[in-house]
Design a protein that fits this description.
Elements: H1 25-39, E1 45-49, E2 64-67, H2 73-83, E3 88-94, H3 95-101, H4 103-112, E4 117-122, H5 152-155, H6 161-166, E5 173-178, H7 182-200, E6 206-211, H8 215-218, H9 222-236, E7 240-244, H10 245-249
Parallel strand pairs: 1-2, 1-3, 3-4, 4-6, 5-6
Antiparallel strand pairs: 5-7
């Protein structure tokens, strides 16, 4: 077999990850790394790792990386991009990090149109800290802090981050994708690539939300978790492009 038909992206270190079996973080990491390779931006890319399951992302991405306090990745990325305007700066955040403690940071970075790219992984639960209810957990979803299911009257509705940010003037591109099938992975990669390309062309804030599974904290097998995502998450979090400033300008 010819070498290089399918190999590890240069933008990923050749080490095992700590993610649970079936977790989609590994797939998403690979898609981001493939985009970095294809755009030939490894030497100019700076990533910001959050607090959450991807807290060790700096050990996996073979680019310059910084660690941010919980929820503060957009603020850190803003500072990095303003100091290094020619760098390609991205944050890689989960829903507990971005939509809860970091909600203000992501909203204001988007409102300012900061020229950064955010990869937002939504698995509808807190992963690293024990499976607590997140702002994205669905009504009726059982978590360690909602053992009888998320209650609408006490916890409100799950936050749709992409739709919320798309109402702002600052973002250049907002999309929601998934990686549950090969076809979905191709669409996810295309969205991630566009977000990076827009940053390279000097456009504003870009966010790609990726629906993901958490078999461990959902209490399901990986295959059961994929089915649950398709039957429950996608109806509440529809896939698609929510803002594309380039298309609006045409």
């Amino acid at each position: 077999m010819a070498e290089g038909l399918f190999s590890r992206p240069k933008a990923l270190f050749d080490i095992p990850t700590h993610y649970c079996p079936g977790c989609h973080h590994g797939i998403i990491h690979r898609l981001v790394a493939e985009v970095i390779d294809e755009l030939d931006i490894q030497e100019k890319t700076i990533g910001v790792a959050p607090v959450g399951c991807s807290v060790l992302a700096y050990e996996y991405f073979h680019v310059d990386m910084l660690e941010a306090s919980h929820g503060r990745a957009p603020a850190v990325a803003t500072g990095v991009k303003r100091v290094h305007p020619d760098a390609v700066v991205f944050t890689y955040q989960g829903d507990g990090d971005l939509a809860a403690i970091g909600c203000a940071e992501i909203v204001h970075a988007a409102a300012r149109g900061e020229k950064i790219t955010t990869i937002y992984v939504n698995n509808a639960i807190y992963g690293m800290t024990g499976g607590q209810m997140a702002p994205t957990s669905l009504i009726g979803q059982v978590t360690s802090t909602s053992p009888y299911g998320r209650n609408l009257e006490t916890a409100g509705m799950p936050i749709r981050v992409s739709e919320m940010l798309a109402t702002l003037d600052g973002p250049a591109f907002i999309a929601r994708v998934a990686v549950n099938t090969p076809a979905a992975m191709n669409k996810a990669k295309a969205a991630i690539k566009k977000a990076f390309e827009l940053q390279l062309s000097g456009q504003g804030f870009c966010l790609v939300e990726v629906l993901s599974i958490c078999p461990t904290n959902w209490g399901k097998t990986p295959l059961e978790a994929v089915t649950w995502l398709e039957e429950n998450m996608v109806p509440h979090y529809p896939l698609g492009v929510y803002k594309d400033a380039a298309e609006v300008a045409k």
